[in-house]
């Protein structure tokens, strides 16, 4: 668990240290190979989702669904599919690295071309986003893979005590 917390801290430090890192391809194979108190990780140690054959969704992915729809969908549309105002995050998660995702959420981004000005505000000081950043990422990753259908997940794993403790500590 300490290694995974160190990786997230490193990703956040990278995001906070200045200009955007070079964009890379998407996060790769989302298969969960490790589990730590209800949070799942892929072979590269990145947060990922776990959906049982009966459709039961891991709690962090469900939490990501809730937080995405509380904070992100007003611009990016329901279920991460984009809107006339902001792009599809489902598509972005397919194409960009986890580190790039974190950097953009923490620091925001502005894209200006000949006829458009798109601005993603920085959420680095918003605990409703930052305390649940990996949850939002796993939700979008599950949507990007096509493993999680649109709408509220019907069945969810129970919330672990560890998750509750971390949430309480982060939210203050």
Over all CA atoms, what is the radius of gyration?
Answer: 15 Å
Question: Strand content of the residues, in percent?
Answer: 5-15%
Mean pLDDT: 84
Low-confidence stretches: 1-24
Look at the helices and sheets and give the structural class: mainly alpha
The percent of residues in helical segments reads 40-55%
**Major sheet:** 3 strands, antiparallel
Q: How many domain regions?
A: 1
Give the SSE order as H and E letters: HEEEHHHHEEHHH
Spatial strand sequence of the major β-sheet: 1-2-3
EC number: 1.9.3.1
Domain Cytochrome c: 50-144
Organism: Lutibaculum baratangense AMV1
InterPro entries: C-typ_cyt_methanol_metab-rel, Cyt_c-like_dom, Cyt_c-like_dom_sf
How is this structure best described in words?
With 172 residues, the protein is mostly helical. It has one domain. The chain has eight helices and five strands; from the N terminus they run H-E-E-E-H-H-H-H-E-E-H-H-H. It has helices at 2-16, 59-71, 73-76, 89-95, 98-107, 127-130, 133-145, 161-171; strands at 34-36, 39-41, 47-48, 109-112, 117-120. A three-stranded antiparallel β-sheet has the order 1-2-3. The longest helix is centred in the first third of the chain and has 15 residues, at 2-16. The two termini are 21 Å apart. The model is unreliable at 1-24 (pLDDT under 50).
